[in-house]
Amino acid sequence: GAVVSQHPSWVICKSGTSVKIECRSLDFQATTMFWYRQFPKQSLMLMATSNEGSKATYEQGVEKDKFLINHASLTLSTLTVTSAHPEDSSFYICSASIAGRGTSSTGELFFGEGSRLTVL
Amino acid sequence: GQQLNQSPQSMFIQEGEDVSMNCTSSSIFNTWLWYKQDPGEGPVLLIALYKAGELTSNGRLTAQFGITRKDSFLNISASIPSDVGIYFCAGHGGSQGNLIFGKGTKLSVKP
C-alpha cells in the first residue's frame, strides 16, 4: 500500500513552453501532497505544500506564478512549470501523506518516482 | 531554520561489510525517517521511528531514534551490491513544520 505515482517520468521541452507533471496516490487518499525539487547530488528541497481543495503553500523563494500547483482531488496533484527555461531543468518529486497520518502527526511521506525535466 | 547534519557524505565499502550512518540536529524531532534513493528514482521509505530510544529493524537494516530526540543512526549489516544508493535521514517536528531532510549519504559497495 501507499503507492504514489508520477507522470511523466521524464520530459524534454523547448524553452518558453509549459510542462505539467501529475502526482497520483494510487491506493490511498492524500489530503496533502508535497512537491520537491532535487538538483544533482543534492538533497530534496521542498517547493510547496499542496492541500486538496485549497491553494498551495509555497516555500520562500519559490515563484507561485512559475510553478502552478493544483490539488483537485484526494488522489491527484499537478505541478505546471510555466514558460520553462533551462534553469528550471531538474528532478521534480512529489510525495503524499495518508489522510489522518503524515506530517500533521508522524511526518511519514511516500514519494513518487520523480520526473526529470530538461529544458532546451 | 532547522537543519540536519548527516554523515558520512559518502562511503565506499566491500561487499559483506557493515555500514553505519547518522544524523544529528540542533532541534528536537518527534519522528525520524530513513529513505533510500536509487538514481533517477524517488526516495523509498526504509524505516520510520516514532519514539525516543526506539530501535527498529527492517531486514538487514536497523535504525535508532536517539534518546535526546536530536539524532538517529542507520546500520546496514552484511552489505550487498544492491544496497548502493543515497540514504537520506529526515526529521519531523510534529504538527508544525515540514519534513526536514539531511544531505544524504552516498553508499558504494564493491563486489
Verbal overview:
The complex is a heterodimer of chains A (120) and B (111). In chain A, 0% of the residues lie in helices and 49% in strands. Chain A is mainly beta and 120 residues long. In chain A, strands 2, 4, 5, 6, 9, 10 and 11 form a 7-stranded mixed beta sheet that branches. In chain A, strands 1-3-8-7 form a 4-stranded antiparallel beta sheet, with no helix packed on it. With 111 residues, chain B is mainly β. Chain B is globular, with a radius of gyration of 13 Å. Helices cover 0% and strands 54% of the residues of chain B. In chain B, the strands form 2 sheets. In chain B, strands 2, 4, 5, 9, 10 and 11 form a 6-stranded mixed beta sheet that branches. Chain B has strands at 4-7, 10-14, 19-25, 31-37, 44-49, 55-58, 61-65, 71-76, 85-92, 100-101, 105-110.
**What is the helix tally of chain A?**
0
Could you report the average pLDDT of chain B, rounded to the nearest whole number?
92
Strand content of chain B: over 45%
Low-confidence stretches of chain B: none
Q: How large is the share of residues in beta strands of chain A?
A: over 45%
Average residue pLDDT of chain A: 89
Question: What's the count of strands of chain B?
Answer: 11
Features of this protein?
heterodimer; A: mainly beta; B: 111 residues; mainly beta; six-stranded mixed sheet; 0% helix
Write the layout of secondary structure elements.
The complex is a heterodimer of chains A (120) and B (111).
Chain A: E1 4-7, E2 10-13, E3 19-25, E4 32-38, E5 45-51, E6 57-58, E7 67-73, E8 76-81, E9 90-97, E10 110-111, E11 115-119
Parallel strand pairs in A: 2-11
Antiparallel strand pairs in A: 1-3, 3-8, 4-5, 4-9, 5-6, 7-8, 9-10, 9-11
Chain B: E1 4-7, E2 10-14, E3 19-25, E4 31-37, E5 44-49, E6 55-58, E7 61-65, E8 71-76, E9 85-92, E10 100-101, E11 105-110
Parallel strand pairs in B: 2-11
Antiparallel strand pairs in B: 1-3, 3-8, 4-5, 4-9, 6-7, 7-8, 9-10, 9-11
